[in-house]
């Protein structure tokens, strides 16, 4: 299982990534560990704003790439209304391969 996620940083910027273990990866980002992303070492992470799951790395990478091509405004709109995913990508990706989930990090 692969997770595609959007993190919100304290400066209100957004970071997009993929992982096989969302809780572990979130803790790597907030701890600024060596395994955390260079971006999140410089921009303190606050929360997971959006998360999807899918079954293989190839389709996860395609979604990650597509999300990264969105403007900041489109990313914010997607976070507010997940139905925007259909508007942004229905012609580009098979959305039935992805499931939007809520992540509870404690």
UniProtKB/TrEMBL annotation:
Q: Does the keyword Hydrolase apply?
A: yes
Known InterPro entries for this protein? Answer: GIY-YIG_endonuc, GIY-YIG_endonuc_sf, UPF0213_domain
Q: Which GO terms describe its molecular function?
A: endonuclease activity
Q: Which SMART domains does UniProt cross-reference here?
A: GIYc
Q: Domain named GIY-YIG: which ranges?
A: 1-78
PROSITE patterns tied to this protein: GIY_YIG
Q: What Pfam families does UniProt report for this protein, alphabetically? A: GIY-YIG
Please give the superkingdom of this protein's source: Bacteria
Keywords on this record?
Answer: Endonuclease, Hydrolase, Nuclease
Q: Which family does it belong to?
A: Belongs to the UPF0213 family.
Give the protein's recorded name.
Answer: Putative endonuclease
Organism the protein comes from: Longibaculum muris
Cite the source lineage: Bacteria, Bacillati, Bacillota, Erysipelotrichia, Erysipelotrichales
């Amino acid at each position: 299982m692969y997770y595609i996620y959007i993190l919100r940083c304290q400066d209100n910027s957004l970071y997009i990534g993929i992982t096989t273990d969302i809780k572990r990866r979130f803790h790597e980002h907030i701890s600024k560990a060596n395994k955390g992303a260079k971006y999140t070492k410089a921009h303190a992470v606050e929360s997971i704003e959006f998360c999807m799951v899918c079954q293989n790395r190839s389709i996860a990478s395609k979604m990650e790439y597509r999300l990264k091509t969105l403007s900041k405004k489109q990313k914010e709109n997607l976070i507010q209304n997940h139905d925007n995913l259909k508007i942004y990508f229905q012609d580009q990706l098979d959305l039935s391969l992805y499931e939007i989930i809520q992540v509870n990090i404690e």
